[in-house]
Fold tRNA/tmRNA (uracil-C(5))-methyltransferase.
Amino acid sequence: MSNSALDPTPYAAQLAAKKARLQDLLAPFAAPEPAVFDSPAEHYRLRAEFRLWREDGGRHYAMFEGDKHTPVLIEQFPIASQRINALMPQLKAAWQGSEVLSHKLFQVEFLTTLKGDALITLCYHRPIDAAWQAEAEQLAAQLGVSLIGRSRGKRIVVGRDYVEEELTVAGRAFRYRQPEGAFTQPNGVVCEKMLNWAFDALGERDDDLLELYCGNGNFTLPLSTRVRRVLATEISKTSVNAALANIEDNGIGNIELVRLSAEELTQALNEVRPFRRLAGIDLKSYEFGSVFVDPPRAGMDPDTCELTRRFDNILYISCNPETLAANIAQLHDSHRIVRCALFDQFPWTHHMESGVLLQRR
């Protein structure tokens, strides 16, 4: 991406176009005008993944547009965090000077945080061994990062397999472990804005919150301070383990977390069948006044959407405005949109993150 592509004038036009698109999608539901939360124009992306391309006797960072045979060679990546941009040439110099590090290296992944933590994953088309680990340990110390080596059936961790982030919501700092390979919001500045919007939209309540698709507890932690209790669900083992660690690290005691999919929890609440993973949790003891959902791009399936209809308040964060609109269409006869927002997690693309608060009519 050229520096001219980061000119603020076209960025403002792109953001206005996204706002208009969201308004068009929500117009059938009489949605209020969305609050718009912009992004920094550069250095906003906290993760990046590059293939390596062999040319002129060396390996170079590369991305591909269209086919996999026409690479765009990259030296710097302006949309990525400053930490990633600082690490890119240092890492490249390291593999260029080491046959052990460079041999059959085909992909590099960076994971960083606003706090400045960094984890680099090196992927190989060959077995990695003790010799690789010895050089990786020296490199990790030199760069001040954690390193992970991956090859078929092998994973070697040098340091930690997660980064540590800190996000501030309503004046309180929350600490997060963000594991390698698990989903995290790529734009930390906008993520913090999303958390604060959701915190404000939910409001102070004296009942309980159900959260579906909780991930590593990104929203769970701050929202738990607004309600009496939270029951949160997530299906990914890696994310569940991270969420449990984050709950403990932040000293929060009113969250129960269960490893169930949204569909399975719907079955449990409808008493279709019992789940051993719910042993010791009395679902009937909860007084749910609100549900929070942050589903994948496909949105909520029809049964889960019907489940959310039970709640007076539905707080919905979406990474796909089309499936958001489809879910709202299913709920529109019982709930109305009282607040909505656009979060520009993905500048310079057509993608957008949005949020709505629906309340029972």
